Amino acid sequence: MSTEPSLFFRLLVRRYERSSLIVTSNKGFADWGEVFNDQVLATAILDRLLHHATTLNIKGESYRLREKKKAGLLGRRVVPVAEEVPTDASV
């Protein structure tokens, strides 16, 4: 087990029913087992997070992606600059 999910769980346990916590994620709850590489730990985390929680599910296009599209930055392929190769055969 990696350290980060364990530390996150310990943080939740210390704050559980003592203070507020705001968590944002671009993953659905069903995917958290994969995110943490541990379904049991993800279930324990979600159990504590959702016990007294208000959840908001925001759907729609990302603000950041929308701004990148407006600026014409999304979908453009970055072409690496080729090294200059000497054309003189004597070099």
Short recap of the structure:
The protein has 91 residues and is mainly α. It has helices at 3-15, 32-36, 39-50, 63-70. The chain has a single domain (3-70), classed as P-loop containing nucleotide triphosphate hydrolases (Rossmann fold).
Looking at this protein, list some descriptive labels.
91 residues; Rossmann fold; 42% helix
Describe this structure in words.
With 91 residues, this protein is mostly helical. The chain starts with a helix and ends in a 21-residue tail after the last helix. It contains four helices and no strands. The model has no long low-confidence stretch (mean pLDDT 83). The chain has a single domain (3-70), classed as Rossmann fold, CATH 3.40.50. It has helices spanning 3-15, 32-36, 39-50, 63-70.
CATH class reads Alpha Beta
Q: Which class best fits the helix and strand makeup? A: mainly alpha
Q: Provide the gyration radius in Å.
A: 23 Å
CATH superfamily: P-loop containing nucleotide triphosphate hydrolases
Percent range for β-strand residues? under 5%
Shape: elongated
List the helices and strands and how they pair.
Blueprint: H1 3-15, H2 32-36, H3 39-50, H4 63-70
Helix pairs in contact: 1-3
